[in-house]
Amino acid sequence: MSSRKIPAYRHQKSRNLAVVRLDGRDHYLGPWNSPESKAKYDRLISEWLCRNHKNGIRREPSTVRDLLANYVRFADQYYRKNGSRIREFGCIIESLRFVRRLHESDLVDTFGPLALKRVREAMVESGWSRKYINKQVARVVRMFKWGVEHELVLPGTWQTLRAVPGLKKGRTKAHEYEPVQPVSDAVVEATLSYLSSIVADMVRIHRLTGCRPTEICLFRPIDIDRSGDVWRFMPPMHKTEHQEKCRIILIGPQAQVILTGELQSLFFEPWAIAYRRVHSGGLLYLEGAIHA
After folding, report:
1. Residue 234: which pLDDT band, with cuts at 50, 70 and 90?
2. CA angle centred on 292, ends 195 and 217, rounded to 5°
3. What is the distance between the alpha carbons of residues 108 and 64, in angstroms, rounded to a whole number?
4. Rounded to whole angstroms, how far apart are CA atoms 95 and 167?
5. pLDDT band at 42 (very low <50, low <70, confident <90, very high)
6. CA–CA distance from 270 to each of 90, 219, 262, 280 (Å)?
7. CA distance 106 to 119
8. Which of 12, 77, 136, 238 could covalently link to 247 via disulfide, CB atoms 3.0 to 4.6 Å apart?
9. Looking at residue 129, what DSSP letter applies?
10. C-alpha distances in angstroms, 221 versus 2, 12, 231, 267?
11. HSE on the CB side for 260, CA within 13 Å?
């Protein structure tokens, strides 16, 4: 095994603090010669030895580029549903491009709060909104947490990143988006005349049940319990199924009348593609109205 000198427990006299330098970064341990500082030193050295001498082979400190490559490979497999990437994967890639541009050559355990703030400032300059930036920064921090789990990042590195607070409204140059407002009934009614009868019925059911756009495309007679006064639909797939949550959509009398008329067409599954095109194309944007 390659030998490597264990970093010393040192005294910073000006502040009377104990300090140890690991992979080019100083870690302050507390008051010099105190039991707490020595216990922290032992813990950090143990982690450092495990990282650099695991399995009897010295491991060179990894770079941010290494972490990015490993995390993207993981995310590409993890953030999928029914074989296709979900939107979260794209958001992760968007957030990490700023990390790659500014810090990919840095040692991963030298990436601290100031580096994270530089990444965040680049996001502000790109024109993203404050709330979206906070979500994107959280995704960057989550990558370092994943790195801790897989022994690519020291626990202390991730913990220091958590100390960076989110941007506060009115205290940042990042702009605010106006909240999405409900679509007026007049706009919806005017739109219905341009749709085929079945797609128009999908819109009506959408409004009456408050389901998601993807869920209205999954309506099938076989999946609906019609034994009671209020029908119950449990989508075979939904947004939060990976969290082991149950999703039940209640169907009242008005929606039941529409669905009864559509039984011969087996509800809406054959029309799912057309409805998604209508919704995503901007002709109808009802999701904001339903969930507002």
Report:
1. confident
2. 40
3. 5
4. 16
5. confident
6. 28, 10, 12, 17
7. 13
8. 238
9. B
10. 68, 74, 11, 7
11. 9
* CB-based contacts of 104, cutoff 8 Å, min separation 6: 63, 64, 65, 68
What is the spatial distance between Cα 210 and Cα 61, in angstroms, rounded to a whole number? 51
Listed in sequence order, the DSSP H helices in the chain are 35-53, 64-78, 87-103, 113-125, 130-149, 155-161, 185-192, 197-209, 213-216, 253-261, 272-280, 287-291
In degrees to the nearest 10, what's the CA dihedral of 144, 149, 153, 155?
90
The answer to whether the predicted template modeling score (pTM) of the entire model surpasses 0.85 is no
Output the pLDDT for position 57.
38
CA 28 to chain CA mean position, Å: 32
Count the residues in the chain. Answer: 292
Provide CB contacts within 8 A for 67, sequence distance 6+.
108, 143, 144, 147, 152, 153
In this structure, are residues 274 and 217 in contact, taking their beta carbons and an 8 Å threshold?
no
By the 8 A CB rule, do 176 and 169 touch?
Answer: yes
Rg (alpha carbons) of the chain, rounded to whole number: 27
